[in-house]
Design a protein that fits this description.
One of its GO terms (cellular component) is plasma membrane. The chain has 457 residues and is of the alpha/beta class. It is built from 19 helices and ten strands.
Length: 457
């Protein structure tokens, strides 16, 4: 068969797959709206049943206690949300300083089984608008079993002395790869970037500028967006979710100098702050086992404990790959959940002490909010099971209506910041999380001591 004809058949097949994918996405979005609109009607239709249920609850001590706790939690959540909105409105990114003011920086890229992606990552970093004489780029292959090392060598051939490539003798985990980079780095600022991520030209200079203008700044979190958001529904959902998580939540946390996690995809650290906790970080254990997950959250905690402020830079973008399938998604969330449990325990050891100068009330409110999510995980699951068993239709209708109400904020937030059409994936994501990922936090709590990256392949 002629090559032209083969290429044409392949293109037609790809076009057909794209068309089918778009049709499925439209069906999912339409189904999402249908479910929520139906739920709103059912809540109206079953209003007498809801009234009777509330009357029955109010007639018993247990029911009154439940109503009181639920009301108190809702009031707290509303107040916390308004507080976050206030902080978000006040937030401003730090503008880039001049070339002369920029400090020396070491960028560390750990990689494991990333293949061609690491090549693209290194080239995007090398293409940054940052003085070459002030930039050190280290790429570390953590014992990959695929062609990652080959692509690192390709990057070395293209970039020459601008990049140093290193190979771990065996896979020891991301934390150990970063540790090697920290020990070799000569920059005043360390920047860590995941090997499946692409940075914009001004990202590096925007990331390091807060350290120049604020001596109290010890770490900076970058603004993470999804690179493969055209490849499936889950990446589209996560892209909307990431915008809320970073541009709203971390903006608010940044105003308190207490961003709780500098993400692995893009973070920057003052070198003196890193060396102030490096050995504790690499030797960290949990329940007697070496910690091989949550290296980003652990580093954030240990730097905060030294008295530094942790900031967020909304103008420092990185595009990173996320799971496209449900299995990869829940494994990633389990790893994040276990890290969250571990590091909240660690944070509890210093957050109520005089760990830094100035007000610490905001940091403690953030800490309390994190613990509230953990503490309420099992009671919420229990109440959900009981509600489903006794009043399944009331549960479904009220849940879908709640999703419509509470998810409208991330929809509006994303629509205002970026794109109206894409914003509606926030509704679908909330449904997926409520019915398909609700078990993550309870499971992560129960298995917090387990090791393993889960999503590495």
């Amino acid at each position: 068969m002629p090559k032209v004809k083969v290429a044409s058949v392949k293109e037609n097949k790809e076009e057909k797959e794209k068309s089918e994918k778009k049709s499925l996405e439209r069906i999912v979005l339409a189904g999402t709206f249908l479910l929520m609109i139906t739920a709103a009607f059912l809540v109206y239709y079953f209003q007498p049943d809801f009234d009777l249920l509330n009357l029955n609850r109010m007639s018993s001590v247990g029911g009154m206690v439940l109503i009181g706790i639920t009301t108190a939690l809702l009031v707290y959540k509303a107040l916390f949300f308004l507080y976050s909105v206030y902080l978000y409105i006040r937030y401003r990114s730090i503008k880039s300083v001049s070339d002369e003011e920029l400090p020396t920086a070491t960028v560390i890229v750990p990689a494991y089984n990333e293949g061609r992606l690491v090549y693209d990552t290194l080239l995007s970093i090398a293409g940054s608008d940052y003085p070459h004489e002030k930039l050190q780029l280290l790429a570390i292959d953590d014992g990959s079993k695929d062609d990652t090392w080959f692509w690192m060598q390709r990057a070395k051939d293209k970039l020459g002395d601008r990049v140093t490539i290193l190979q771990q003798p065996e896979n020891k985990g991301k934390r150990h790869a970063l540790y090697r980079g920290f020990k070799m780095g000569t920059g005043e600022i360390f920047v860590t970037i995941d090997s499946d991520s692409i940075v914009k030209a001004d990202t590096l200079r925007n990331m390091v500028s807060p350290f120049v203008v604020n001596e109290e700044c010890g770490a900076v979190a970058g603004n993470v967006r999804v690179l493969n958001n055209k490849e499936g529904m889950i990446p589209k959902m996560l892209n909307v979710s990431f915008v809320l998580s970073f541009e709203f939540i971390r903006s608010a946390e940044s105003m308190l100098g207490s961003v709780l996690c500098t993400p692995g995809a893009l973070s920057a650290y003052r070198s003196t702050a890193v060396f102030g906790c490096l050995e504790e970080w690499i030797n960290q254990t949990f329940m007697g086992q070496p910690s091989d997950i949550g290296e980003d959250r652990a580093m954030t905690n240990m730097i905060m404990k030294q008295g530094y402020h942790i900031k967020f830079q909304r103008n420092a973008y990185v595009l990173t790959n996320v799971p496209e399938k449900y299995k990869g998604l829940y494994k990633m969330f389990i790893r994040w959940g276990r890290s969250n449990v571990r590091e909240n325990i660690m944070m509890s050891k210093f957050v109520f002490k005089n760990f830094r100068e100035g007000s610490k009330a905001g940091t403690r409110i953030l800490f309390f909010n994190q613990w509230l999510k953990i503490v309420m995980a099992y009671p919420v699951i229990l109440m959900m099971v009981v509600f489903i068993a006794t009043h399944p239709l009331l549960f479904l209708s009220s849940t879908f209506l709640s999703i419509l109400i509470y998810s409208s904020f991330p929809v509006l937030f994303y629509a205002k910041r970026y794109n109206v059409a894409e914003s509606f994936w926030a509704y679908s994501y909330s449904i997926l999380y409520t019915f398909g990922l609700f078990w993550i936090t309870p499971y992560a709590i129960a298995t917090a001591s387990r090791r393993g990256w889960l999503t590495r392949g």
